[in-house]
């Protein structure tokens, strides 16, 4: 399924914040997690993740530190800061409102909704 | 593809993305780590290394898109500020170490002059020997800075310190005759030897490795550029200070000459060394531009020198000052060549610039031959003296270097040998300079009866 560019861009920040809320992480693993969470539907270009992480760092929502990976290469790890946790909570609220509204629109359709979804 | 080397390809990809100023070397580290993990995962899934590399690079994104995204985010990077606030603790520690050693160097620079008995004769408030000692002490401080920041093993800095002490002792203890040339020769050659000994401390262990020696050559070139920048700024500062104090009828020239100038020059040695490490990304953009700008100019100069040398009459009556000028130009050209070599990506194929360097090398070789012939003629006429022998030795050494370098560079420009061979020739030649400088300091004075 091709998901629209704008939708992918809009969901990028809440997804990354949510993944970091699960625990400290680094770039490649974050991408893997996005892939897992969306069952392969969301494919981010690898290089687009890092400017996003840097923007979040500039805004103060995440903090970074360098650690050594198991292979010995230096690796940059990210974690949520206090303001990042607040930002994540805010994003959750906003998305809950939006998805509740969408769910209501689909439910209200009744039988027509089944038609629109390609059902019998 | 049997010649595919993953490390080489990743390094070239990395050079491509860091060419865009929006992507700093830290970002490049991050992206490179990511790329390598992606490649490892793909190889584990069964792909060949070159396939994994291609897919990994495509996944990361085209270089232009990548740098555009980074530029949007880091618009402040497109003009590199020399002083970024480094609030991490290691950054602060490095700055404190550098500041400490700079202060130490500034203090040590004045110690020989203060201890000297016949002060007042020279510009910095001391005799020729105390100037030499001051330079030696400042270079010792630089060696100490290397030992601390690069964590040199004891064997490295102890042997360098011992050799340096022997050289300094020779300059101080030999009974030089005050009008002779052996003392100025020793004083001129000692810093060269001491700088190369500091290079041994810089290597912090693998002093035989080509890569480490190339690193030191690169460091020397970049240090020189930063030092010149600081010196220009310092000159403006001192000039303004003297002018300001003159306006209120206070003569500040003596204080400036005897205190500000030597202490500033000494401290700047360490500060420039710190800047080379701390601000690598800045100089990486300047070095290739500088070498590309100056190499054609120096090639033209060399050709002009050859014309002058051949047109001004017989080679046995060459003016002595002209010979000195030729020698100085040759040394500058050698420095420029070494610097270009260190600033060059070793994996890039031969281009117009490398072919131009062949021309430069051949013309420098011709100038060297002219000087040698003239030198031999003068020695034949006036006999061996310390000055002439030192000059002869230097020119012979340069001849050896230039012959090898010209031959290798030609073969590289024709695509027969890799650039690594050209590099290895120059780095293998470094001990020759050290040995020659040590010979001039230690063995010339007794050989020429300290005259």
Please describe what this structure looks like.
The complex is a heterodimer of chains A (about 120) and B (about 450). Chain A is of the alpha+beta class and about 120 residues long. Helix content of chain A is about 65%, strand content about 15%. In chain A, strands 1-3-2 form a three-stranded antiparallel β-sheet. Chain A is globular and about 55 Å long. The two termini of chain A are about 20 Å apart. Chain B contains 16 helices and no strands. By secondary structure, chain B is mostly helical. The longest helix of chain B has about 40 residues, at about 210-245. Chain B has helices at about 5-20, 25-45, 50-60, 65-75, 90-115, 130-150, 155-175, 180-205, 210-245, 255-280, 280-310, 320-345, 350-380, 385-415, 420-440, 445. Residues about 80-90 and about 120-125 of chain B have low confidence and may be disordered.
Q: Please state how the strands of the largest beta sheet of chain A are arranged side by side.
A: 1-3-2
Which stretches of chain A are low in confidence, meaning pLDDT under 50 for 5 or more residues running?
none
Number of helices of chain A: 5
State the distance separating the first and last CA atoms of chain A: 21 Å
% residues in beta strands of chain A: 5-15%
| Oligomer type | heterodimer
Classification by helices and strands of chain B: mainly alpha
Q: Give the number of helices of chain B.
A: 16
Please state the structural category of chain A: alpha+beta
Shape of chain B: globular
> What sequence of helices (H) and strands (E) makes up the elements of chain A?
HEHHEEHH
Run of helices and strands of chain B: HHHHHHHHHHHHHHHH
Summarize the structure.
The complex is a heterodimer of chains A (about 120) and B (about 450). Chain A is of the alpha+beta class and about 120 residues long.
Relevant terms:
heterodimer, A: 120 residues, alpha+beta, three-stranded antiparallel β-sheet, 5 helices, 3 strands, 13% strand, B: 451 residues, mainly alpha
């Amino acid at each position: 399924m091709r998901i629209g560019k704008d939708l992918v861009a809009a969901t990028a920040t809440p997804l990354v914040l949510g993944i970091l809320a699960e625990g400290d992480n680094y770039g490649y693993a974050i991408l893997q997690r996005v892939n897992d969470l969306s069952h392969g539907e969301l494919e981010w270009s690898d290089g687009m993740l890092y400017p996003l992480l840097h923007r979040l760092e500039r805004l103060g929502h995440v903090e970074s530190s360098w650690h050594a990976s198991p292979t010995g290469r230096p690796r940059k790890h990210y974690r949520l800061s206090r303001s990042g946790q607040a930002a994540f909570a805010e994003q959750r609220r906003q998305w809950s409102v939006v998805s509740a509204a969408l769910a209501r629109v689909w439910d209200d359709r009744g039988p027509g909704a089944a038609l629109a979804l390609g059902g019998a | 593809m049997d010649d595919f080397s993953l490390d080489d390809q990743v390094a070239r990809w990395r050079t491509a993305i860091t060419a865009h100023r929006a992507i700093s070397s830290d970002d490049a580290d991050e992206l490179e780590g990511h790329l390598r993990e992606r490649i490892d995962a793909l190889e584990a899934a069964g792909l060949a290394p070159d396939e994994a590399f291609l897919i990994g690079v495509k996944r990361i994104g085209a270089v232009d898109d990548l740098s555009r995204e980074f530029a949007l985010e880091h618009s402040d990077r497109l003009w590199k500020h020399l002083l970024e606030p480094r609030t991490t603790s290691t950054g602060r520690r490095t700055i404190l170490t550098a500041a400490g050693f700079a202060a130490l160097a500034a203090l040590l620079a004045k110690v020989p002059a203060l201890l000297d008995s016949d002060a007042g004769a020279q510009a910095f408030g001391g005799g020729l020997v105390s100037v030499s000692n001051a330079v030696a002490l400042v270079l010792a401080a630089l060696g100490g800075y290397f030992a601390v920041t690069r964590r040199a093993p004891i064997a490295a800095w102890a042997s360098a310190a011992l050799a340096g002490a022997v050289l300094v002792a020779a300059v101080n203890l030999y009974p030089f005759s005050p009008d002779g040339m052996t003392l100025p020769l020793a004083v001129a050659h000692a810093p060269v030897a001491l700088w190369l000994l500091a290079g041994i401390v810089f290597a912090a262990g693998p002093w035989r490795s080509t890569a480490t020696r190339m690193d030191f050559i690169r460091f020397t070139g970049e240090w020189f550029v930063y030092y010149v920048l600081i010196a220009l700024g310092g000159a403006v500062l001192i000039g303004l200070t003297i002018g300001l104090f003159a306006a209120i009828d206070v003569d500040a020239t003596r204080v400036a000459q005897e205190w500000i100038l030597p202490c500033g020059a000494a401290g700047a040695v360490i500060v420039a060394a710190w800047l080379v490490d701390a601000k690598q990304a800045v100089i990486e953009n300047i070095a290739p531009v500088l070498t590309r700008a100056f190499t054609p100019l120096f090639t033209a100069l060399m050709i002009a020198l050859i014309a002058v040398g051949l047109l001004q009459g017989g080679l046995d009556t060459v003016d002595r000052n002209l010979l000195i000028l030729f020698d100085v130009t040759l040394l500058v050209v050698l420095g420029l060549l070494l610097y270009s070599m260190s600033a060059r990506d070793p994996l890039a194929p031969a281009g117009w610039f490398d072919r131009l360097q062949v021309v430069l090398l051949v013309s420098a070789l011709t100038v060297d031959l002219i000087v040698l012939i003239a030198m031999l003629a003068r020695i034949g006429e006036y006999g061996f003296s310390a000055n002439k022998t030192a000059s002869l030795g230097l020119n012979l050494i340069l001849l050896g270097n230039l012959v090898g370098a010209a031959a290798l560079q030609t073969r590289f420009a024709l695509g027969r040998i890799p650039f690594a061979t050209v590099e290895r020739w120059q780095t293998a030649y470094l001990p020759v300079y050290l040995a020659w400088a040590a010979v001039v300091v230690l063995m010339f004075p007794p050989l020429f009866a300290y005259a």
